[in-house]
From TrEMBL:
Annotated organism of origin: Desulfomonile tiedjei
GO MF, one example: oxidoreductase activity
InterPro entries xrefs: ADH-like_N, GroES-like_sf, NAD(P)-bd_dom_sf, Zn_alcohol_dh
Chain coiled-coil ranges: none
UniProtKB keywords: Oxidoreductase
Superkingdom: Bacteria
Name the UniProt record assigns to this protein: Alcohol dehydrogenase catalytic domain-containing protein
Pfam families: ADH_N (PF08240)
Lineage of the species this protein comes from: Bacteria, Pseudomonadati, Thermodesulfobacteriota, Desulfomonilia, Desulfomonilales
Domain Alcohol dehydrogenase-like N-terminal: 23-123
């Protein structure tokens, strides 16, 4: 079957690989669409902690179960189900986690092997490309749950790419009031239709006041102090996007946390339940969500697509495996 294989860092190749054989508890999906995200692009360009090479990338998948017409999205994790995290319904933190597109082959291939327990049915009216966004929207829900965001809370989102916009959507469904700070005029222009339809405020800066919660939806390390300095006392900063480099934690931020009794939490990935929660939201806001998908490309165009994602030139790209 056709696949895009990451053979080594920086080297993607179109290759025919064997169709995997399902074992106990596994199913074979014919991939319909696979969205590209910045994590895919970073794995291609510089690697990642959980990446094992060679690897078929792709973890934002919509596919059809072999021998049926049933459509599913896939929770990309495979957890042990026995550890304290799994028992506590935080299976995204399982220490034995295996992740689709990281340490097992993902969706940038004609077919993908997945645990049957990871399948989540797609609503009949939800298009395949929009369904691919179930995983990033679920990650947004996870971040807001870690920060204890509630109805009426104000939320500062630092970064107005696709993930920042999905965090804003998740916040709106929770009854919160998000504001997105995005310094790129081009990104603000790209997201204008989406934001207008959902009444999401945004700008290159914000004079709104202080916020209950702040979350970084980009990896710029200056978002830490920027977010913490805009929090109300006892507010919460959520690390959503990991920082790069070895810069020390700013002392000013530490003092802000201390004197104003702020909370700092992390958010990584999502649970299966959070993915299931995201599908009805995508179904309800399908017209708005599809505004984030700027390009649909063929499998052979994946390398160029990842380059575009890495450069921050597009909100969302989806690979159409049927093209």
């Amino acid at each position: 079957m056709r696949s895009v294989l990451l053979k080594e860092i920086g080297l993607l190749a179109m290759e025919d690989i064997p169709v995997p054989e399902p074992g106990p508890g596994q199913v074979l999906l014919r991939v319909s669409r696979c969205a590209l995200c910045r994590t895919d692009a970073k794995m291609w360009s510089q690697g990642q902690r959980d990446l094992i090479l060679p690897r078929v990338l792709g973890h934002e998948i919509c596919g059809i179960r072999e021998g049926t017409d049933e459509r599913f999205v896939v929770w990309p994790g495979e957890a042990c189900g026995r550890c304290v995290q799994c028992v506590g319904r935080a299976e995204n933190l399982c220490e034995e986690m295996k992740i689709l597109g990281f340490n097992r082959d993902g969706g940038l291939a004609e077919k993908v092997l997945v645990p049957e327990s990871s399948l989540i049915s797609v609503p009949a009216a939800l298009a395949d490309d929009a369904a691919c966004l179930a995983e990033p929207l679920a990650c947004a829900f996870n971040a807001l749950e870690q920060a204890n965001l509630s109805a009426g809370h104000t939320l500062l989102i630092l970064g107005g790419g696709a993930v920042g916009l999905l965090i804003a959507l998740a916040a709106k469904t929770a009854g919160a009031c998000p504001f997105i700070v995005e310094i790129s005029p081009e990104k603000l222009s790209k997201s204008e239709a989406f934001r207008n339809r959902l009444d999401i405020r945004a700008g290159a800066s914000c004079d709104y006041g202080s916020f209950d919660v702040a979350v970084n939806a980009c990896s710029a390390d200056d978002t830490l102090l920027a977010g913490i300095s805009r929090l109300k006392s006892s507010g919460c900063f959520c690390f959503f996007s990991g920082f790069t480099g070895e810069k020390p934690f700013p002392v000013k931020a530490l003092n802000e946390i201390h004197y104003r009794q702020l909370r700092v939490v992390g958010a990584y990935g999502c649970t299966r339940a959070q993915m299931a929660r995201s599908l009805p939201v995508l179904d309800e806001f399908q017209k708005e969500v599809r505004l984030l998908i700027e390009q649909e490309i063929r499998l052979g165009e994946t390398a160029q697509g990842l380059s575009t994602v890495l450069a921050g030139e597009v909100l969302k790209i989806v690979v159409n495996m049927e093209a």
